[in-house]
Amino acid sequence: MVQVDNDVSLDFADDHGTVHPQHYAFLVGEAEFDEIFGRIKDRGLTYWADPFRRREGELNTNDGGRGVYWEEPSGHFLEIITRPYGSGS
Fold first, then answer.
1. Rg (CA), the chain
2. What is the pLDDT of residues 29-76, one digit of tens each?
3. 18 vs 5: CA distance, rounded Å
4. Exposed/middle/buried for 68, CB within 10 Å: 0-12, 13-18, 19+?
5. Do 28 and 82 contact (CB within 8 A), yes or no?
6. Which CATH number fits domain 31-89: 3.30.1380, 1.20.120, 3.30.505, 3.30.70?
7. In this predicted structure, what is the pLDDT of residue 55?
8. Where are the alpha helices (DSSP H) in the chain?
9. How far, in Å, CA of 41 to CA of 12, rounded?
10. How far apart are alpha carbons 69 and 24 in whole angstroms?
11. Angstrom distance (rounded) from CA 7 to CA 21
């Protein structure tokens, strides 16, 4: 179990079957977004503004915030956003 802010935890289970890539989205503050995005760029990771991987090297401004997607080494698709889905601008 990995404990994160706001009483949220990520629980991992060992499964001996095939691992299927998942999408994980994290709502973060502006400062945290800058820190995480800085690490993405420092590591030279490919990132996209959209989940369909059409807008490579861009951020999105959905709902008046910022968001970005990238793939982690196991194939999971990660996303950070600064505004909740559907919150408007």
1. 14
2. 999 999 999 999 999 999 999 999 999 999 999 999 999 999 998 889
3. 30
4. buried
5. yes
6. 3.30.505
7. 97
8. 30-42
9. 27
10. 10
11. 25
**C-alpha–C-alpha distance, residues 67 and 84, integer Å:** 10
Paired strand residues for 10: 2
Q: Is the dihedral of CA 28, 87, 57, 77 positive or negative?
A: positive
Which two three-digit tokens encode residue 16?
């001996």
Q: Can you tell me the distance from the alpha carbon of 54 to that of 63, in angstroms, rounded to the nearest whole number?
A: 19
Residue 65 confidence (pLDDT):
96
Enumerate the domain spans of the chain.
Answer: 31-89
Residue pLDDT, tens place only, 9-27: 777 777 777 778 889 999 9
Q: Which DSSP symbol is given to 62?
A: G
